[in-house]
Each structure stands twice: as structure tokens, then as C-alpha cells.
Amino acid sequence: MQEKFFKNYLLCIVRDSRLLLSNSLNYLISLLILPFLAKKNQVLLNRALFINTMKLGDLEISLKFLIQFQESNLFQEHYLLLDSRYIDLLKSLRINIRLIPWNRKSYKYNIFYRIKFIKILRRYSFLTAYNISQERGILNDELTLLSGANKKICFKKNAEYLFPFFNFINSRKYSTILNFDEMNEYKLLDLVSNQLGLKIIHSIDDRFIISTNNTLPSSYICIAPFSSDNQRNWSIVNYLTLVQELSIDFNIVLLGNKIDSLHNQFCENSHIFNLIGKTTLSELPGIIKNSQLFIGNDSGLTHLANVLEIPLIAIIGGGMYGRFFPHRLSINRKYRYYLLDCFGCEWYCIYKERYCLTKVTVATILSDVYKILN
Known about the structure:
Blueprint: H1 2-37, E1 47-52, H2 56-61, H3 63-72, E2 77-83, H4 87-91, E3 98-102, H5 104-109, H6 111-122, E4 128-131, H7 138-145, E5 151-154, H8 164-171, E6 176-177, H9 185-196, E7 221-224, H10 236-246, E8 252-254, E9 272-274, H11 284-289, E10 293-297, H12 300-307, E11 312-315, E12 333-336, H13 355-358, H14 362-373
Parallel strand pairs: 1-2, 1-4, 2-3, 4-5, 5-6, 7-8, 7-10, 8-9, 10-11, 11-12
């Protein structure tokens, strides 16, 4: 265990060194761009820009917050800047928000794309720009601060992906930092919503979901065995056993990305529908919304089930415990993990295996399923 500790310690040093180098290079580019873009817009329109450059799950956490802005009518028009890979998800929802697709790789490594994108962004003449990314970083800070908006607002004073020196400089450029002493991202957005006086909604109901035509049965359980980070995954063997056991009494719909190479291990029959790699992002909200129950890891699809208020069982482990999950525990919402003293390790595990996940048994999940559905 001591050897594993030192290995993780060295990894942290390497990560911090890479962070400093990345921040320095990107900040240098910002300094080169800024003089050409410093001229303020003469006419600002009643438009709000929301910037979320994070992954799918982080974007899904923000959905309810965006809808609350729409329902509160504080601005005439709402725009969301997001990773272009996830644009289909937003198109599948009835949300009155205009989308600005953004290519992370091109923005980070192509100076011409970067300058052109910032110039186009400033032409919108935004009144207010909100950095709603779950972690502030050099890129989403730059996009917010160079957006040309009169007010620039973020929700965190500290930034995990910014070296302290650059965080200090950028924080001084924001008009407002709504800083709350809250670790959980869901609760943080609720606090921000109250602070801004938004009209609070408790779930994303059928008004916002575009129904999808599919050949699925009328009742089924959704199971998503994979996440984008393999170290967060519950054992594939456990999922195989779980699916076989549950398919005796229930219809099972398997969901996931086509890059999940192990998906072929799940056989199909009259009760098991393997849709891994066969659905688009635009279809997922409708499929999950119509399910009886959702089972998955700490993943983007689990966040989607959570914001859609679907009964769920999430095998979350302890790597990011409290940051996202558990959230709103109830009789229809179960979070499973094996409790250890090292929770919050950010998946830098000191043991030979991730006991916080591996010690969660199939029997426990089966028991939860029957308790929820009965």
C-alpha cells in the first residue's frame, strides 16, 4: 500500500507540472489575443451567455439550472456554449436556448480557430456571461472574460484546473463571483438559483422531453454498464450476472457508447435489448425517461437519469464521493459503495483494487431493484 501511495504522489506532481505548463501556454495566447479584442461592444443586447466546456455529465447537471433561467424570463435570449460533441443532447430537449458549438481541440491548438471563435462570440453583444462549468479552467475562463459581455459571473472562487497565480489574475476580472461553501455540484446550483431569484423547478418533466419513436417494450429497466472513465466502472462480470438475473422478471435495455468494447459480452434475447452504440444522444432522454428504473455507475447517463427524476441505483464508489453523488437520497434513489477512510481520493487509489466498488455485491443491487419496483 505504501508503494501505491508514493506512485500516486508522483502522479500528482506530474499532473501539477502539466497544469502549470498548460496554463502558462494558454495564458500567453490570451495575452496575444486580448489587445486585438479589447474594444468593448457599443450596443449590448438583453442576451445571456452560459458557458459549460465540461463533459456530458457536467452538462447534464446544468440542465435544470438552464431551464430555470428560461422560465424566469430575466433575459430576452439565452445562449449556451458547449462542446460540439454533445449538441444533439440539447437538441432533443424543448429548451428555448440557442446553441453555440465549440471544438475543444481546435480551440486549444489552433490559434486561428481561437481568434475567429472569440471574434464571432463578441458579435452577439451579450449583456451577461455566466461560466457554469463545474470546474473553472484556463479555457472556460478565457471564453467568459473575452466574450464581450458587460457582466461576467462565475460560481467558484477556487479553481482545480487553474494554477493559483492564474486563478488570482482571472478572479479579479470577473464582475461577480458567487462563492458558496458547498462541495456538491447539484446543491451549489440550487444555492445559485436562490441567490439569483430564479423560478425553481424540481424536475425536467415531459414538457421538455421530445418523445422518440422506438420499438422498446412498454416497461423496462435501463442499465448503463460503462462510464467514460474505466476506473469508475463496477465489474463487467457483476453487470453480466445482474442482467441475467433481472431479465427473468423484467425487460432490460442496455445503454452506452459504441467505444465500450466489452458490450458484445451482453447477449440479446426477448427480454434483453442491447442498444450500446446503437442510439444517438438525442434519443437517450426519451428512452431513459420512459424507463421504470435506471442502474449505472458514476457516469453521464446516471446524471441524466438523476435530472429526469427517474428511480435509480448508482454504484458510485468513493473516488468523487460527495462531489456529485449521493444526491437527494430517497426510497427510489439508492447509491451503493463500500465505505472506506480514503473517500474523496479522486480515484488515486492506495489499494491493489478499488474496494469501494468491488465490495458492492450483485445481491445488494438485486435487493434494491425489487424494493424499488415492488
